[in-house]
Amino acid sequence: MKCVILVTLAIFATNCEIINKSVIRNVRFFGGLHVKEEIRIIMLNNGTQSVDHFRYWLDPNVVNFIVKFSGENGTLTHETTTEAPDEFRVNLQSNFKPGHVLKVVVNLISFGQVVPVQNTLMGPHQSVVYRGNVGFYSGYKTSIATSSFTLKPEGMKALQISPSPLYQLEGSVEYITKNISPLSLTRLTVAYQDNTPLITILSLKRLITVSHFGKIFVSDQVSVKNEGRFNSSFPYMNVNNFDWWWYTHLPATADDVGYFDELGNSSKSTLLHYKNYKTLKFQPRYPLLNGWKTSYVIRYSVPSVHYLWNHVDEFSLKMRAVDHIFDDVLIKDAIVKVLLPEGATIINVTLPGLFTKFDVGQSTFGRPQIIFGAKSVFESFEDFHIQYFLPKYYLLKTPLLIVLSLECLFVIFITAYWV
Known about the structure:
Number of helices: 3
Largest sheet: 8 strands, mixed
CATH superfamily of the largest domain: tricorn interacting facor f3 domain
CATH topology of the largest domain: Immunoglobulin-like
Strand order of the largest sheet: 5-4-8-2-1-11-14-13
Shape: flat
Number of strands: 30
Strand content: over 45%
């Protein structure tokens, strides 16, 4: 018991060394199931010792997130603490001295705080509820926090908010909270209208087949769910259930693009050409009603010269682990499989931060393969890097097999003809 008290006092003393003098939160939800938040914090070291880090706590309602910390001199590195997965240790570029002030900007994209609900008061429109915090959730004492919540204009027309805001401006509401105790919450509930499709990508299976004959083939198998809820007895009349076009951005060099669903090739697709990218515009075969799921496959090829480099017999492959699927949509589960040419020997594999390696071995056809994946991916367009060794005489194997096969067929045909 005595040890527990000492540990508690030590943690409390550590928390009291830093005070959040001023916090300005700008929370934006412009459609979809995610929330974008920019937090500007001015901290004061009220202790007697310099510190080389500070701690940051996430709201308990946040399920999935992407967070970035920036100081006056650039990006700050962070890591999850062993005490809790929603608590971070943020490392500073220089010591935070007693009596000094530190300015930090936190950019947070979170999921779990916006939930679709049934609300008969919204009529045929789709209703969602945001559950957050009026003030600022932190393990440090906060002197004053200003929180601004911005919605789309149509959301403001059907706004239901509790508690009542201090200010309600055009398109936003604002709260000012003073003297916030450590780890304290003042719950905020905002119900509003959102007719945008609430799409979640349940799974993405990406297959990249590397060829040394000019092309790299990519296949994305996507499983999608509409997370919306019905408000009326006639769900087919909901405005957000009608057909809508989907857009997926592809590399500018993408070729042989195809869109397939469970029944095969779909004619409801077209490829738009832009300067720096191509966009596949397509439509599901059937409307994706609220609560429904669908899956489809997009296949294309890209020139290997843009992604594959070599020095003698050593090759280097660099591509995006996950490419664009939809704007501002969470990918719950992403698995990427890379097939290298037969005879290749893997030297090194470098993956983006979110991804972990699952398997390195050979496929059923004898080709070396690397399988890696990640959970809760959101706009993470980072590259993976694979270095491998492949003797150049292996490049002659396929042409020689084709020539020998044709020769054998020719001999068999001639023999059968004369006999």
